[in-house]
Amino acid sequence: MYFVNNEHEQNYKKMVLLFPEARKTPPNTEYQVACYVISYPVLFDIHQGKPGDHPFTWYLVNKNELQIPLPYKALIDLGLHLYGGGSHDFNLLRSLSYWSYDADMVNVFFQALAIRKVWIEKQQKSI
After folding, report:
1. What angle do CA 99, 105, 52 make, to 5 degrees?
2. Which end of the chain is more exposed for a tag (fewer CB within 10 A), N or C?
3. How many structural domains are present in the chain?
């Protein structure tokens, strides 16, 4: 699994401990991808390791008060989109333009897709 640094990896381990759904066998990939996104160091610092009842509660409850730079807001939107089964708006082209100068964020995007892709593959096999 790709992490931007050791802090990101340690944050992810903390988030997975908070949300047992991410540790189940088979794991819930919605929770895994949410834990992965909110463990990104800048986002983890915002919620200080206390995201709430669900991975994005911290954001949904406080989004009007939070001043999050657009590249990180796009990462949150990606996480919400993948966590919520596609019900949250996510603009791929705009997000890629925000991340175009940051290879780490692009790699996080691809890793998030890879985490969530496992669920999609399982759904296709059951059809």
Report:
1. 115
2. C
3. 1
The model's pLDDT over 70-87, given as tens digits with 9 standing for 90+, comes to 999 999 999 999 998 878
The answer to whether 8 and 87 have CB atoms below 8 angstroms apart is: no
Q: Does 89 fall in a domain? A: yes
Look at residue 12 and tell me if it is in a domain: yes
Token duo for residue 17: 């401990």
- Per-residue confidence (pLDDT) for residue 6, from 0 to 100: 98
Name the amino acid, one letter, at 15: M
Q: Which long-range contacts (CB under 8 A, 24 or more apart) does 116-120 make?
A: 116/29, 116/30, 116/33, 116/82, 118/29, 119/29, 119/30
pTM score, whole prediction:
0.89
Question: Do 112 and 36 contact (CB within 8 A), yes or no?
Answer: yes
pLDDT tens readout for residues 7-66:
999 999 999 999 999 998 888 999 999 999 999 999 999 999 888 899 999 999 999 999
Q: Please answer whether residues 26 and 19 qualify as being in contact, where contact means their C-beta atoms are separated by less than 8 angstroms.
A: no
